[in-house]
Automatic annotation (TrEMBL):
The lineage of its organism: Eukaryota, Fungi, Dikarya, Ascomycota, Pezizomycotina. Keywords: Repeat, WD repeat. InterPro entries: PROPPIN, WD40/YVTN_repeat-like_dom_sf, WD40_repeat_dom_sf, WD40_rpt. The keyword Hydrolase does not apply. Belongs to the WD repeat PROPPIN family. Pfam families: PROPPIN (PF21032). GO terms for cellular component: vacuolar membrane. It is found in: Vacuole membrane. The keyword GTP-binding does not apply. This is WD40 repeat-like protein.
Amino acid sequence: MNTRPILDSYAGPHALSASFNADNSCFSVALESGFRIISSSHGETKVTREVGGGIGCAEMLGTTKYIALVGGGKQPKFPQNKVQIFDDAREKVTTSLEFKTPVQRVRITQKYLVIALLNSVGIYNMKIPPIKVAEYETVNNPFGLCAIGEGVLVFPGILPGQLKFFNVGNSQISIIAAHDTPLRTLAVSRKGDMVATASEKGTIIRVWSYPSCTKRAEFRRGVDDAVVFSLAFSPDGSTLAVTSDKSTLHLFDIPTSSQPKPDPAKHKWGSLSLAGPLLPRQFSDTYSFTSTKFEMGDEPLAWGPHSKSATFTASTPGVPGGRPTKGLIGWLDDQTLIVVGAGQDARWEKFVVGVDQVGKRVVYRESWRHYLDL
């Protein structure tokens, strides 16, 4: 099986960040000179816009109608405390929102615009101009953590490890203690009925049901601490994909309420998983059913990995998390997903879930490319 056919060679510019649209059909890339829209299925450029300065964050509505932009990089086009709504059909900014502090991240849907600042999250109706619905205080949130699904928005609470659920229908707030340490990554299922969380420790992944806000599953990514880059549910909600700074992509089965406990014969530690309190919990925890490596890319030595701390100082203003995006997951369908990275070595990789010669489910890399070369 050829798991890595090389599609092209690297000669691209520096990508500051990357973000998927709502259905993962495209991803937007923020550059030192503007932004691009890339097709997720093949990693090919659909739209290139030069704006005469750096864009740290580009969030796309649908395909290319409206794009929310935040200045960033070495020579920002816009101030980091402003969100510009760019109308791609007219190739101009139609409206903007200004804040007292730098914008950490933007999320945009057909109905809502969500702005994450360091210590608050603002929710707006997606109109021109946007209309403010609510604002909530958060703990320090330098990664701009916030995720939106059908009917629900999630973001950090006012205490480390705390998670808030905002019901977009009735504005009701629910709060849980998701982890003991600060949150590092969030994801919402497409139906809005599940939320996945990881803390800055990065060993345990938890899945929460919504609207009950009860724990549905708990997975062990590994024993050693790690930076969890991305969490993503498959479209049907049956699988959770996880990437980390270990350059590993893990896949976990999401249990249903009627599903029995995993068969010890299929558990990583076999019958030891039944030993309960006699052994450390990592012997009984649920591990991924398959994993593989993805490429973080070759970056300058001074670049370094994403910080493990959820309270570090951003090194690149305007860029979510202060570092180029790595390990961003997007599902194309229930068996196919891509992993995208920004930086000097900006990569697109396609993975497929299949079955090997002995009937075991596996995930393998089908192809990859440097997406900015095209």
